[in-house]
Design brief:
This protein is of the alpha/beta class and about 220 residues long. A hairpin with a 6-residue loop joins strand 2 and strand 3 (about 40-45). Helices cover about 30% and strands about 20% of the residues. The chain has a single domain, classed as DHBP synthase. It has a ten-stranded mixed sheet with strand order 1-8-2-3-7-4-6-5-9-10, sandwiched between helices. The chain has helices spanning about 10-25, 45-55, 85-95, 125-135, 155-160, 200-210; strands at about 5, 30, 40-45, 65-70, 100-105, 120, 140-145, 170, 180-185, 190-195.
Amino acid sequence: MSAVYDCGRHDSRADGLAAAAGAVRSSRLVVLPTDTVYGIGADAFDAGAVQSLLRAKNRGPDLPVGVLVGSWSTVDGLVLGVPPQARALVEAFWPGDLSIVVPHAPSLNWDLGSTRGTVMLRMPLHPVALELLRDVGPMAVSSANVSGRPPASNVEEAREQLGDSVAVYLDGGPSGEPVPSSIVDLTGTEPLLLREGAVSREQVSEVLGVPIADPA
């Protein structure tokens, strides 16, 4: 049976964050608010929990799951040398609506899907998400919806789609306009804009000082 916690109330928020942290540490799934849409999350280093996340979404490993972090410094432990371009984007847009794709450290023991040695990272601008991430560490997070259906912009939409596959739902109120994060791929010789969302191509180009190409 799932539990729902109203994070708009101080006492319920504290209880909800504690319950969510306990769920993550015991290989279960949680739904959390972010600054874009609601996300369904699991411990990034728990392969079984990540597989449960993919099953809940009815999604295969060919679409790997991104990772949310609670601080800039967390990235240093996940990436084998943070590229200068990645550092510049992190400083300009984190916490916020920009995801970066970078090579992950080969020593990491995780299975996020068919990542080919890369990982998509983001630090969300939402106090509930940040508090949970700073407690439990990096989380594998995808939009809180069944594949092929619209992403959830409130906890009721998430529950309607995901039901009891999720142990804890953190209700942070409506997410506002369901605009996805922008995604910049920094794994090649030049930065590529995989998705233009809340952060524009022009903003990314200005920070990096180079034109931003689309993938071929």
